[in-house]
Amino acid sequence: MRHGFASAQTARDEVHSIMSADRPFAVQPAAYPPPGNLGEEAIKRELDAPDSRIDVGVAIVGGGPAGLACAIRLLQLLSEAPEVMQRLGEVPVAVIEKGKFCGAHNLSGAVMRPSGLQALFPDMDPSEWPTYGKVERDSVYWLHGPTSETLFNATPKTFQNHGNYVVSVAELSRWLSEKAEALGAYILTETAGQQLLVTDGAVRGVHSGDKGRSTRTDRAGNFEPGVDIVAKATVLADGPWGHLGRAAVEEFHLAEGREPQVWALGVKEVWSVRKPLDRVIHTLGWPLRPAAKWREFGGSWMYPMGKDKVSLGFVVGLGYTDATLSAHDLLQLFKTSTLVRDVLEGGERLAWGAKVIPEGGFWSIPKLSAPGMVLCGDTAGLVNVPYLKGIHYAIHSGIYAAETIFEQLSRDSADFTAYEERVKGSVIWQDLYAARNMRQPFERGFYAGSAIANLMVATGGSFPGGRWPNHPDADAPMVIGDRKDAYPQPDDKYIFDKLSSVYISGTSTRDDEPSHILVQQRVPRQVAETWRWMCPAAVYEIAENTPDDAEEVDVIVHSANCVQCGAITAKGGRLTPPEGGTGPTYTNT
């Protein structure tokens, strides 16, 4: 253990040395934090009067796989315990979802391990699941450039998917919401969880966001104030950058002694194609640069969605240092490769979207409960980055949360600490512990990182051991590099710009809706360029007529474009909940 920690400390020192040397114009976005205070904004410490609030049994924030699995499992248990169901009132289980429908804001690759759905629906045949079939073949390529690639002779263990299922997480969430409603869940769509209700050191539910606010008149004619939703138990499954999840972690000091969370941004497209793709494909290498100073870590995927559609995307870690890196444009560049063009030839783009992924791994998992509350799924950081898996962990965590809540509410207790013990005794903890140090070594560059990570895979995470640190993405010193010079120009056939992509995401937000994005609006150019290039939806713009040699610039925020991917939260700003019902309407991402 001592040897492993020493290695980690050496790695940290080397990385900071590499990042700092000969970079006099580097600026850390963390030095320009967003205005406001998360705790003051996101915590409500007094409950409304009983006649002006909604009382429910269990409030679940987030209509994704984790939250809906929790609702389904809890209602399965309650159906066999009518006396407990009766104690929870007229609305025993409420799911609070800010999108127009469950799944509207959900996006992932995704190849799903079946264990989660098997546990949730043990008597259901997999043919009834909303999938695009079982994976039969895998291929992994190293791309040397747009016209040159090497096929791995054997698929690395971390990319092996035989027996897993290709899914759209948006479709999966809609299907799960139907199952939850059939069991009696009350699903409140177009409802943002704006504040966590905390009294006497315990979570008592959530306060929903106002609707109908206007930048012109404050309250438009259709104004609806938010309301307290008071619950005996609260489940926070509000996604990787969840507003209430982060507020709970801060309020109850759940991340003390843990490593900071780090993130990646994934941009995805769905295409109709003329010929079926017969395998799952992943690529490494180009168009990312391997040098440690750029800290570019990520890769791509292409997954078959039946015989006539393909999902493809590009993921890049947000700890990079070139302000002009753009995940959206890297995906467009990736599509110029002969490997991809052969798949897409004659096809048509159907959908597009973007979302962040928590990549901190085992050492970044916070404490998973506080009085009256639990954290599930991506909100808790339950993602296995080397193996590209998270959906089944989300479902399992929702099941464990439901079982713990049912047991405790049956005893009139709001102590849910047993939930964490369930997670620690499960496949979630086992898998994430084995992969606990596989993401961090890539800060030393791709080649060194790959060598160390392969050792960890071969030894089940035992060597090199110890605890390797994470470095917050906003701490990366940003420089204005030349990454942007390689991006292709849109042709509206295979290559597309950001605004046309936002259009097909179905994003709908009123132009006069108050901005839900908090950033400093006068910052060094390096920070402004970081936000401008990073955002896949063209939300951030440097003011016109800004002199080319200006060291500080004004940032204009076009919040109506926002697809709520969450990347700004990782890189120096903060995303807060918009008005319920706004944002993208993903259907097959």
Which characteristics define this entry?
single chain, 589 residues, alpha+beta, FAD/NAD(P)-binding domain, Alpha-Beta Plaits, 9-stranded mixed sheet, 7-stranded mixed sheet, 16 helices, 22% strand
Largest sheet: 9 strands, mixed
Give the overall pLDDT as a whole number. 94
CATH C-level class of the largest domain is Alpha Beta
SS element count, helices = 16
Instruction: Please give the CATH architecture of the largest domain.
Output: 2-Layer Sandwich
Report the portion of residues in β strands.
Answer: 15-25%
Distance between the termini: 42 Å
Total number of strands: 25
- Spans of at least 5 consecutive residues whose pLDDT stays below 50 are 1-22
Rounded Rg: 23 Å
Task: Summarize this structure briefly.
This protein has 589 residues and is of the alpha+beta class. Helix 3 (65-78) runs parallel beside helix 6 and helix 3 (65-78) runs parallel beside helix 10.
Structural notes for this entry:
With 589 residues, the chain is α+β, with helices and mostly antiparallel strands. The chain has 2 domains: 54-127 and 169-209 and 224-259 and 362-434, FAD/NAD(P)-binding domain; 129-158 and 261-360 and 478-575, Alpha-Beta Plaits (2-Layer Sandwich), CATH 3.30.70.20. Helix content is 27%, strand content 22%. It contains 16 helices and 25 strands. Strands 1, 2, 3, 8, 9, 10, 13, 19 and 20 form a 9-stranded mixed β-sheet that branches. Strands 6-5-15-16-17-14-18 form a 7-stranded mixed β-sheet. It has a 3-stranded antiparallel β-sheet with strand order 22-24-23, covered by helices on one side. Helix 10 (391-410) packs antiparallel against helix 11 (418-424). The longest helix has 20 residues, at 391-410. The protein is globular and about 65 Å long. It starts with a helix and ends in a 14-residue tail after the last strand.
